[in-house]
Amino acid sequence: MKRCIIIDSTRRGKSMPDALSKTVPIWCVVMNRALFDHHSSTQALYTPSDVVGESEHAQMEARLDGFLEDAKALNLNLSALRSTIKKPLHPFWITPETDPSDYPFSDARSEYYPVVCCTASRRTTDSEGSQYYIQGAGDDSESWSHGLTSTGFWRHLQELLDAEEEELPGLIQTFMSLEKDGLKTEDYVLITPTENIYLGTLGAVMRAQDFDVVIVSNKMSSSVLEAGEEQMKRKILDLNCVSGKLGSRALRAKLSDIPTFVSALTSGLESPKILSACSTGNDLAVGVALVVLCLFFDDDGKFHSSSPPGIKDTIDKSFIRRRLAWITSAKPDANPSRSTLQAVNSFLIERPGLRKS
Question: What is the DSSP letter of 221?
Answer without folding.
Answer: P
